[in-house]
Amino acid sequence: MPSFIDESLIHALLKEPKFASPKTAENIIQKALMLKGLSLEETAILLNCQDKRVLAKLFRAARKVKEAIYGRRLVIFAPLYISNFCVNNCLYCGFRRGNLALARKRLTLDEIRGEVRVLEEQGHKRILLETGEEPKAGIGFLERAIRAIYSTKYGRGEIRRLNVNAPAMSVANFRRLKKCGLGTYQLFQETYHRETYEKVHPSGPKSDFIYHLFAMHRAQKAGIDDVGIGVLFGLYDYKFEVLALLSHALELEQRFGVGPHTISVPRIEPASNAPIAGNPPYPIPDTDFKKLVAILRLAVPYTGLILSTRESAKMRDEVIGLGISQISAGSKTVPGGYKASENRNRKRKKVSGQFSISDNRSLAEVIRDISKRGYSPSFCTACYRLGRVGADFMDMAKPGLIKNFCLPNSLLTYKEYLLDYGDKAAKKLGEKVIKRHLKDITNRKIKEKTIDKLAELETGNRDLYF
Ligand code: SF4
Ligand code: SF4
C-alpha cells in the first residue's frame, strides 16, 4: 500500500524561499483565528517564520483558538503501564527487547486492579492504558485488562474513560477492543520520515512502516470513532514531522470524515539503555517546541493536543497557554509504579520506566498549579457517555460549540474531585476557581443548570454532566 505521506512535497514546501515572508505569516495567523485550520502550504510558512514579532502573534492566536474551541479547561488523565515486555527494539525506548538490564513485568489482573485503586484514590477518572508489543500475551490480555480497569470501583472512585495506547493491530482485534469499551485508540508514528523510521525500528513487527502508518485506517474500519496520533519529536526535523502529522490528519478526514481526536507531542527523553534517547538526532530547543505546539493548534483547531509529564513543570506551565487541551498528571511509567510509590518519597528523574519523567508533581499539585494559572482542571468524560464521538463530536468541536459543555463539565468534575479528594486548602482554592469560571459560561440556561448541578453534588449525587 503506498504511503499517503508525500515526502517530496513536504521537503519542497519547506525549501520554498517565498514562504519566509513575515507579512504572509501574519495573514495566515489572522485567517487561523476563524477556526478553519490551515493547509500544508500555510503551515509550512509558519514553520519557516523566525520573526519574533510574528511568533508572539502566533502564540497569542494559539491561546485564542484553544479557548474559542474548548474554553479554559484542561482535561487530566493518568497513564497506566500494564506490561513492559516488548518484541520490538525501538532505539529510543527503555522497554525495547535489547534492554537486557530491564526487569520485565506483566501485571496480573489483581495488580492492575491495585494500580487502578491507587489512581481512583487520588481522584483520577481517565486512564490511558499503555503496553509493549507482546504477541504471546495476545489480544486477550488487553481485553481482560480493559474489563478489569472498568470494573474496579473503589469508594467514590471509578474509571469513566479508558483510552488505549497499544501496538498496531488487525481490524478484527480492533473490533474486539471496541467491544470492551476502548475509548480513544492512540498510536504514534514516532517519525513519519521513512528512512529514519526504519533506522530507529531495526526489528520486530513495528519495523513495518506501512503497517504502522495505516493502523488508524484499520481502527476506523473497525468502528473505533476516536483515534489519536503523534510524533516522538527529536527523531527527525520537527518541521517535516508537523507537516506529516497534518497530512495524516487530512488523510483521515478525507477517508473517514473524521480527523484525529487527539495529537500528542512527546519530546524524546532519556531512557535506560536506549541508544538514542539521551542523544536525539534532532534535539528540539524549547522555543521551537513552543512554536510547533502553537502551529498545530492553528492547523487542526478541533483536535485535542496532549502533553505528557516528559516535559518539566515549567515547560508544561508555559505550553498549556499555547493550545494544549489535555495533560497527564502524577504519572508513573513503570508497570506497578503507582502501587510501588505509595508511601514512598518521590524521587526526581527516575529513568527505569519507558522514559524519564520531568514533571514529578502529584495530581493534587498539578490541579493546584493549573487552577492558580487560571485554568479549570477537568475529569470530564461526558462526550463519550452521551455518544458525542467521531463525526458527531467534530460537528460540535469545529464551530467551537463544544466549549458550551466543556467548561460546565470541568466545573462539575472539579467540584466532585474537591468533595471526594480535596484537602482544606484545595477546597478553598477550588471553590474560588469554580466561582470565577462560572462567570465565563455565557449561555444563561446552561449556567443556571450548572449551578443547580453543583448544588446537587453537595447532596451526595455524582457523575453529573451535560
Ligand atoms: Fe516496545 Fe513501544 Fe517501546 Fe517500541 S516504543 S520498544 S514498541 S514499548
Ligand atoms: Fe471532552 Fe466532551 Fe467533556 Fe469537553 S465536554 S471535556 S470535549 S468529554
TrEMBL record:
Residues 72-310 form the Radical SAM core domain. Keywords: 4Fe-4S, Iron, Iron-sulfur, Metal-binding, S-adenosyl-L-methionine. CDD domains: Radical_SAM. InterPro entries: Aldolase_TIM, BATS_dom, Elp3/MiaA/NifB-like_rSAM, FeFe-hyd_mat_HydG, rSAM, rSAM_sf, ThiH/NoCL/HydG-like. One of its GO terms (biological process) is water-soluble vitamin biosynthetic process. One of its GO terms (molecular function) is 4 iron, 4 sulfur cluster binding. The keyword S-adenosyl-L-methionine applies. The keyword Hydrolase does not apply. Its cofactor is [2Fe-2S] cluster; [4Fe-4S] cluster. PANTHER family: 2-IMINOACETATE SYNTHASE, THIAZOLE BIOSYNTHESIS PROTEIN. This is [FeFe] hydrogenase H-cluster radical SAM maturase HydG. It comes from candidate division WOR-1 bacterium RIFCSPHIGHO2_01_FULL_53_15.
